[in-house]
Amino acid sequence: MKAIKISDNIYWVGAIDWDVRNFHGYLTQRGTTYNAYLIIDKKITLIDTVKPVFTDQLIERISSVIDPGKIDFLVSNHVEMDHSGAIPAIMKYNPGVEIITCPNGEKGLRTHYKKEWRFNVVNTGDSITIGDRSLQFVLTPMVHWPDNMLTYIPEQKILFSNDAFGQHYASSGRFDDECPLDVIMEEAKKYYANIVLPYSKQVQKALSEASKLDIEMIATSHGVGWKKNIEKILSKYEEWSSNKTIKKVVIIYDTMWKSTEKIAYAIHDAFESQDYQIVMNNLQHNHISDIMTELIDAEYICVGSPTLNKNIMPSIAGFLTYLNGLASGNKKAISFGSYGWGEQIKKIDEYFKNTGFEIIESVKHKYIPGSEDLLRIKNNIIEKIK
To answer: Is the separation of the CB atoms in 305 and 254 below 8 Å?
Structure first.
């Protein structure tokens, strides 16, 4: 496996994971990449590494350019294993490698690997000369871990953006001009929704810092980087992090005997009458990470479940738990469901309250709703959303 030149004396030396389909509960139908970058200068510098299982790919790609034992600096932008997992292997080639990281990065690496490596701790505004180039650092804590930071090369106007602007997307192309833009943007939105969304305030701060830089290339940690559409992805991050919504409703439900599904479609008809964009998601057929992608810009979220053993359906509880860890409270919410006895739809409302959503209505129906019941539900919802 060979390194891929992305700029003058800078190479992509990462790994492509064609097979991964689940990343911390996030469905990755198109695989992913773990991007690492090798800079050839007076001080040979490696920016990040790869997931441990892909260490051999990293070493082989580095070796196609230089002896891994000649690496002087290793920049660790993020402690998580898909970024730092091959650091122990690099250190075996040259135990004297200087690891450049932020204060929380040092703490995280020491705690995780329990090694006495050489650390050079940097903060926002710090710069290190590696020869003809310099590395500048911007700390971006909680985008999406406390240790996150960005690395910038002003001489070549390249931003190594860590998890920001990435996608879980496996491709032999390394940049946006080599891949279908609609697919990349779809995966970038899904990545934001399932990883970055809860840290939107921190993203706003990071965007403010990034706006001060003259950027001609963004080298991401996952998926493809950006050269042709930099303004477009920056604009989308500004939009997503601002929690802007459109006239859209996402309806999520599970059903046993179709009663809850009938209520879901009555709610659908109410929103349709008010010209809302509608997305229906039966959890028996749709994955929670794809639903989160749809929820980014939705004004309304509606969640429905029948009562099962004095509780809501496990699929609904699982979705709401996932949602609670990601969503910000900028949505209006409707709960709904059917029951025979021991109605527990109120448990959905408890999740809504914990997520900070504004509860507009809670629709409950005993046994099977008839046509008159469904019409009443529809008209009631119309009155609530007008």
So the answer is: yes
